[in-house]
Specification:
8-stranded antiparallel sheet; alpha+beta; 5-stranded antiparallel sheet
């Protein structure tokens, strides 16, 4: 009964926020497969016949109820390591990839503080007139009771003044205080379709984490940032941040004893195959203990 109630809540939240166009209707009317495990809700759907944004898509959601928010944590590895490996090390129920990093050096390129330990800082911008890169203008902070979303100023050390023990910068901000944030149309990072990962919060305090597959024509095309924003809005988010995406996008869920899986549920694209083995080693993750 609890699982059915959760599914009804998920769909009703979508219906309440979806406008009446084909994509929003396909999204809200989709036959979402639902799973409830250890207090957390998981949803997924592959849009094939009911295409989304005129292309097939594969979308996954994790919904963390307000009373479970304290179970969300940031993880970090000084050596690039797959999301699933980091998740298992932390004994995680579920995990997704986190913020951006240098693929050659392995270090975070956005501010990251875990249990008051600063393990990453915002690398300076060379092209724009401000000190921050485009994907460094959104910050999420953890507390035991809620997620806190912040738009930092151009000072790339601004996060050090935030009164939180766990802070992750990424970006851009997609939705802030119920308002959709316009994105720059001159950046292919914004306008091209890619695998995407995002995190947001609803008015009731629940957290919504999304992974959308991409780069697989005919199976999962991927999303622009505008499309990602629409989906997070349709899912009921009043705040939402874009995280690292592309080949980094990974969704891990601890397998049950009867499941012959290593826990990777989506189709990471780094191996170019539509299977579960194309994980990219990453610097940091968001996990649910």
């Amino acid at each position: 009964m609890k699982r059915i109630f959760a599914l009804l809540l998920f769909v009703s939240a979508m219906l309440a926020t979806c406008g009446q166009n084909r994509d929003s209707l396909n999204f809200s009317n989709a036959s979402w497969r639902e799973r409830y495990e250890d207090g957390i809700f998981f949803f997924k759907h592959q849009f094939i016949d009911d295409t989304l944004f005129d292309e097939p898509q594969f979308v996954y959601f994790i919904v963390v109820p307000p009373d479970q928010i304290s179970r969300i944590h940031f993880g970090y590895d000084s050596t690039l390591t797959e999301t699933s490996v980091q998740a298992k090390r932390h004994g995680a129920l579920a995990a997704v990839n986190g913020s951006f990093f240098d693929m050659r050096r392995g270090n975070p390129v956005c501010y990251l503080k875990i249990d008051d330990n600063e393990v990453g800082e915002n690398t300076p911008q060379k092209e724009d007139s401000v000190n921050r890169k485009y994907y460094q203008f959104a910050t999420i902070c953890l507390s035991d009771s809620m997620l806190h979303f912040v738009i930092p100023d151009s000072d790339r050390f601004d996060e050090r003044r935030l009164p939180f023990h766990n802070v992750m910068t990424a970006g851009p901000m997609l939705i802030y205080n119920d308002s959709i944030i316009p994105q720059r149309p001159d950046k292919s990072f914004v306008t091209s379709r890619h695998n995407r990962t995002a995190i947001g919060s609803r008015a009731d305090g629940s957290a919504v984490i999304l992974v959308a597959d991409g780069r697989f024509k005919g199976q999962a095309t991927g999303l622009t940032l505008e499309q990602l924003t629409n989906i997070m809005k349709w899912a009921g988010c009043r705040n939402a941040i874009n995280l690292d995406g592309g080949g980094s996008s990974t969704f891990y869920l601890r397998p049950q004893k009867y499941e012959h899986l290593d826990g990777v549920r989506n189709y990471p694209s780094d191996n170019g195959k539509f299977d579960h083995k194309g994980e990219r080693p990453v610097s940091n993750i968001i996990y649910i203990k």
